[in-house]
Specification:
It is built from 6 helices and 9 strands. It is α/β, with parallel strands linked by helices. The strands form 2 sheets. Strands 6-7-8-3-9 form a 5-stranded parallel beta sheet, with helices on both faces. Strand 1 and strand 2 form a beta hairpin.
Length: 213
């Protein structure tokens, strides 16, 4: 299960209202696109859901449980940043493996189990031949797929992608759409933000427009 409910979320930075009393629900397995101009509050809202920011008021409910004060590591939400935030000194393989390697020793898989899981995800994102390359040695579309694989390493039920189509060339956009279809087939609940409608509007179950928080 991966149902998300937001109830009256609000966030201010000084006099700037980034998020104003946002309430919405995303059903288990739903694909929702959050559409709006740059600076309207999309990224702040996504970061609150993931636990990377704290709302001034309101609640984040995951499967009916209040997760507002739950640490980001315990929310089981995969987050793909707009600029991917890959570790430049790590190979593609180690970037993807990172989420497993930093688990507490009691729950950390063996090296062999990590190898199997990372190989599975690199195959899913069609990068199995590039595991030993570094981020600067691959294309922007490939870096995005590495970031998605890294977000999936702990098998989250809920996946958030911040502006994933921004800056992608037509080939990379096509590959991204194929990957989204695969994730939908796996039952992932997804929330994707964008400032342009693009092809995402044709793929999603719901479209939400956000403006001025």
């Amino acid at each position: 299960m991966a149902r998300l409910d937001l109830q009256g979320l609000a966030k201010r930075y000084g006099d700037f209202h980034a998020v104003r009393d946002v309430s919405l629900s995303i059903e288990d397995g739903e694909f929702l696109v959050l559409l709006g101009p740059s600076g309207c509050g999309k990224t702040t809202l996504l970061r609150i859901i993931a636990g990377l920011e704290t709302a001034d008021r309101g609640q984040v409910l995951l499967d009916g449980q209040d997760a507002s004060d739950t640490h980001v590591r315990e929310r089981e939400v995969g987050f793909v940043f707009q600029h991917y935030a890959l570790f430049r000194h790590m190979t593609v393989f180690e970037n993807v493996a990172f989420g497993l390697r930093v688990r507490p020793r009691a729950t950390r898989p063996s090296n062999e189990a990590i190898r199997v899981r990372v190989t599975e995800l690199l195959k899913l994102v069609q990068l199995e031949a590039l595991g030993q390359r570094y981020p600067h040695q691959i294309s922007g579309g490939q870096r995005q797929r590495v970031a998605i694989a890294r977000a999936l390493i702990n098998d989250p039920e809920f996946l958030i992608l911040d502006e994933p189509v921004a800056g992608l060339d037509p080939k990379a956009r096509h590959e991204f759409k194929q990957l989204i279809h695969l994730l939908r087939d796996r039952g992932k609940t997804m929330l994707i933000s964008s400032h342009i409608l693009s092809e995402l509007g044709e793929m999603c179950d719901s479209l939400l427009f956000m403006d001025r928080g």
